[in-house]
Amino acid sequence: MRAHKWVGSLHPRLAVVIHDLLMVALAWWAAKTLRYLLLHSGDATFLEMEFPLVLAVQGGVFAWTGLYKGLWRFASLPDLWNILRAALVGTLGIGLALFLYDRLQGVPRSIFVLYPVLLSILLGGPRLAYRFWKDSRLDLFASRQSRRVIIIGAGRAGEALARDVRRDARYQLVGLVDDDPSLRGARVHGVPVLGVLEQLPRLAREVAAQMLLIALPAATTAQMRRVVDLCQASGVPFRTVPKLEDVVAGRAHFNEIKKVAIEDLLGRDSVELDWTAIRTGISGRVVLVTGGGGSIGAELCRQVARLGARSLIVVENSEYNLYRIERELTTQFPDLSLTACLTDAGDRIALEQIFRRHRPQIVFHAAAYKQVPLLQTQIREAVRNNIVVTRVVAEVADAAGCERFVLISTDKAVNPSSVMGACKRVAEIVCQNFSRRSLHTHFITVRFGNVLDSAGSVVPLFREQIRQGGPVTVTHPEISRYFMTIPEACQLILQAAALGRGGEIFALDMGEPVRIRDLAEQMIRLAGKQPGVDVPIVFTGLRPGEKLFEELFDAREDYSATTHAKIFLARSREMAWEVLLAQLDLIEDAVRTCDEEDLRLQISRLLPEYRWQQTDHAGSTDNVIALHPADNEGAA
Q1: pLDDT single digits (tens) 396-428
Q2: What pTM did the predictor assign?
Q3: What are phi and psi of 353, to 5 degrees?
Q4: Minimal CA–CA distance to 506: which of 442, 448, 555?
Q5: Considering only CA atoms, which of 470, 468, 562 is closest in space to residue 520?
Q6: What is the mean pLDDT of residues 542-554?
Q7: What does the alpha-carbon distance between residue 474 and residue 542 come to, in Å, rounded to a whole number?
Q8: What are the structural domains, with CATH classification, of the chain?
Q9: How far is Cα of residue 67 from the mean position of the Cα atoms in its chain?
Q10: What are phi and psi of 236, to 5 degrees?
Q11: What span, in angstroms and rounded, lies between the C-alpha atoms of 528 and 541?
């Protein structure tokens, strides 16, 4: 069996070797014959060992130059250069061998000019012809029907994609479209540029296109929306190549074809980051991430590992989430010193032991509860996890002499209308005032809105509802939220951490708010269905604690710009240290005794602007688990 496989794998190479040696013999014979014919000096004669010497020397040169490693299917200019080099070196070697054998007796000197030219033609011609034959799909035995394809974008990405598509028998490239006027009437790999983008619906009908491939990896979000609108207007299925930043970050491969995701349309344009400052702050440091198995926490772990942290400690209370991120990190970063800790970040004893053992220098506190409707009826757990745990982690980090503590907060902490928002606002106040008292640790808060496709967020829920045929549930026709992608949010968190000197609240520029209704309609269209026709949209009404519009700043915070265009600084709220500690102690007492009325009282003292709403405490299943997708936020 093994011998059979060996022969099967050897056979194509052996055929190439035999072909090339036959071409060597033919080129030598033709060069010598041609010389005598041109000079009319009789018939060419050959020495007894002439052909064996020529074949042996030239064959050895072929092996030395690696000519047999190239595939005829992908023959290109580098292969032709390799052939020319092998021919020239082989000519010199043959001349030397024949000189040593018989002082070049009967070998005209002009043959050493004709031979490499003829050999290059005889070796290069079949290779290029074979590639042209494969690329042109001249395989008469192929029975598969190919799909007619238009590529959108005739730049470098479009050219590379066109080359790959023409090699794939499943597709027939019929044209490209591009807005560049200099490409009008041009051809890419023999395929015409049919026109501009606005003509796409008409052109798709005229050439009977069956697939549209978007090759615009550097397109802005606005440009991508325009392209997708035109693709949808054409009524033809479409796919895209990944964005450049996804390729650079290793999240995708160049020319990989994928469905257009909602992140491609709602994500913002890539931002310039001070990677030198970010890398300097992370490289060689010991970093701890709480909630490291969640959406934001896991992405922070990936980016911290990518930036060269000396050691990474992941604290997570979900066994499965911890298992998943540990397996991913050990696979992608085998040299990383990784410690996975299955524990609640509020377990002071366990946390103190972790800090004593590993001495983390930077802490990213991403552990939090985030589902607004659920937490409206789970006040004790919301307070315990979002306030008490934050205090525990902050105190342990400060006592251990940690350099930086970064709290991941939310836009729902601004003028809070929900239990979750109120708890995160208190957590912000805790960190701001800790920074004023700490001798070692810089406490920094980073505040942002929703992240696309995070666990429990609107995108996966809508996707599931669309898959089931609907309805897609939206609370209000005008409800809107800020969105950014998980990688971008984490990159800006790292940038804010590098900017912070202690006590700041950094708010990330979330761009323009997005109507949840528009988001639902766009996702339905991306799934190839019609909103309200194939998949209904149902408005369920605002829930307790839910806002129509989110805010990134309180009017009293007097925000200002920073050195980074996408990060703003809000003025922190200062409190008397003793008063704050006393309030936190009372909150912890109420948590221990499960006294929700006292929890309301203590939080109202810390946040006079927050007004408690009457909520249903019946504890029915509907009230507990029927979460609305628009009510989540990005802290995992």
Answers
A1: 999 999 999 999 998 888 888 889 989 999 999
A2: 0.64
A3: -65, -40
A4: 448
A5: 470
A6: 70
A7: 9
A8: 10-135 (no CATH), 147-260 (3.40.50.720), 282-631 (3.40.50.720)
A9: 37
A10: -110, 140
A11: 27
